[in-house]
């Protein structure tokens, strides 16, 4: 009897040893996805879709932890973390890639009134060889890759504490927060503004304290943090159409199988559809949200703005991006 029990124990131990590696292999790999957007924003809901698709399509091999509200840092810190490999993914404005070595040419997307529609931008940026070449260059030189430019942002506008902006002359003297992008700086300086680059997380306090008179942004990143509580005038200049980008640590990406890369790429595209849908819904509701808060929404003379800033990109042509890039983008939009 003792020999039988000993034999059974040995068999049980052997079975356990065989099972242990298999169980270890089924443990999911946890990856981090971070954004600066708030948890009540379209971007957060999009990232929850990204999480669901990745976890389902990988059969649980990956677990995605989503961090919002700049919990893991501002854009510069997220870029640095991806370069170091301490976080795997981030989601923020595509043109922020221009802050990274090798990605300066992406600042072309901020040329005022360059894009006719967000649909044109999405189609061209995700398929055009020149844009794909920029993404590859940044991945090689800086260790951060764009693996999808999916999700349409709200058009950029001017939000002010000092009154409605109805014509280009109304911008003169305003202290405006803008992203630190040369062509956008050139645009507002031509209009006579005093530009102040500033991180997203600082804007509300700066508006409240009067450190700045306004900011340049879209509804999608302005309504959720309630900037309209401090800056009561929204002027729909619609001077820049922009996309959101899915960014990944190149260290992480290079270690993935083709199958896993396809899973993450599919998830990015599906999440981008959520961003676009919810952003359009927010844009439709935003005017009522502003009015309910006692803020003013105006549609200025957009054609006057278009004429006032025409050509601001010319001194940067061949420096910030390849020579003739803006004109090439315009021609691509004219193609059937």
What does this structure look like?
By secondary structure, the chain is of the alpha/beta class. The protein has two domains: 27-153 and 242-283, 3-Layer(aba) Sandwich (D-Maltodextrin-Binding Protein, domain 2); 157-241 and 289-334, Bacterial extracellular solute-binding protein, family 7 (D-Maltodextrin-Binding Protein, domain 2, 3-Layer(aba) Sandwich), CATH 3.40.190.170. The chain has helices at residues 2-25, 42-57, 75-84, 118-127, 129-142, 182-190, 203-209, 219-222, 250-254, 258-292, 302-308, 325-334, and strands at 29-34, 62-67, 89-93, 144-148, 157-160, 175-178, 194-197, 214-217, 233-235, 244-249, 296-298. Helix 2 (42-57) packs antiparallel against helix 10 (258-292). The longest helix is centred in the last third of the chain and has 35 residues, at 258-292. Residues 1-24 have low confidence and may be disordered.
CATH first level of the largest domain: which class? Alpha Beta
CATH superfamily membership of the largest domain: Bacterial extracellular solute-binding protein, family 7
Strand content: 5-15%
Q: What structural class is derived from the secondary structure elements?
A: alpha/beta
Mean pLDDT: 93
CATH fold category name of the largest domain: D-Maltodextrin-Binding Protein, domain 2
What is the tally of beta strands?
A: 11
**Spatial extent as radius of gyration:** 24 Å
Strand order of the largest sheet: 7-6-8-5-9-11
Question: How many helical stretches?
Answer: 12
Count of domain modules: 2
How can the largest sheet be summarized? 6 strands, mixed
Helix content: 40-55%
CATH architecture of the largest domain: 3-Layer(aba) Sandwich
Low-confidence stretches: 1-24
Instruction: Give the overall form.
Output: globular
Order of helices and strands: HEHEHEHHEEEHEHEHEEHHEHH
> Span from first to last CA?
85 Å
């Amino acid at each position: 009897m003792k020999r039988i029990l000993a034999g059974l124990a040995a068999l049980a131990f052997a079975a356990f040893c065989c099972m242990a590696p298999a169980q270890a292999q089924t443990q999911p790999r946890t990856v981090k996805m971070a954004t600066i957007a708030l948890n009540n924003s379209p971007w957060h809901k999009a990232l929850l879709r990204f999480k669901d698709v990745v976890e389902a399509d990988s059969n649980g091999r990956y677990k995605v932890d989503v961090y919002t509200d700049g919990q893991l840092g501002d854009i510069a810190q997220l870029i640095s973390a991806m370069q170091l490999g301490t976080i795997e993914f981030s989601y923020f404005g595509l043109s922020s890639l221009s802050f990274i070595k090798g990605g300066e040419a992406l600042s072309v997307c901020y040329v005022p009134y360059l894009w006719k529609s967000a649909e044109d931008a999405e189609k061209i940026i995700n398929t055009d060889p020149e844009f794909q070449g920029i993404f590859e260059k940044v991945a090689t030189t800086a260790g951060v890759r764009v693996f999808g430019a999916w999700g349409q942002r709200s058009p950029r506008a001017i939000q002010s504490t000092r009154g409605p902006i109805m014509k280009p002359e109304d911008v003169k003297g305003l202290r405006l927060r803008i992203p630190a992008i040369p062509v956008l700086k050139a645009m507002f300086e031509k209009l006579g503004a005093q530009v102040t680059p500033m991180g997203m997380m600082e804007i509300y306090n700066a508006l409240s304290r009067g450190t700045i008179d306004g900011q340049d942004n879209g509804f999608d990143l302005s309504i959720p943090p309630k900037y309209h509580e401090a800056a009561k005038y929204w002027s729909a200049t619609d001077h820049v159409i922009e996309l959101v980008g899915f960014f990944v640590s190149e260290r992480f990406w290079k270690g993935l199988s083709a199958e896993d890369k396809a899973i993450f790429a599919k998830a990015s595209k599906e999440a981008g559809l959520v961003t676009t849908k919810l952003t359009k819904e927010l844009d439709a509701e935003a005017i009522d949200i502003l009015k309910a808060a006692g803020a003013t929404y105006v549609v200025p003379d957009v054609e006057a703005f278009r004429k006032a800033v025409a050509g601001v990109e010319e001194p940067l042509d061949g420096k910030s991006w390849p020579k003739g890039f803006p004109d090439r983008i315009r021609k691509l939009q004219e193609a059937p």
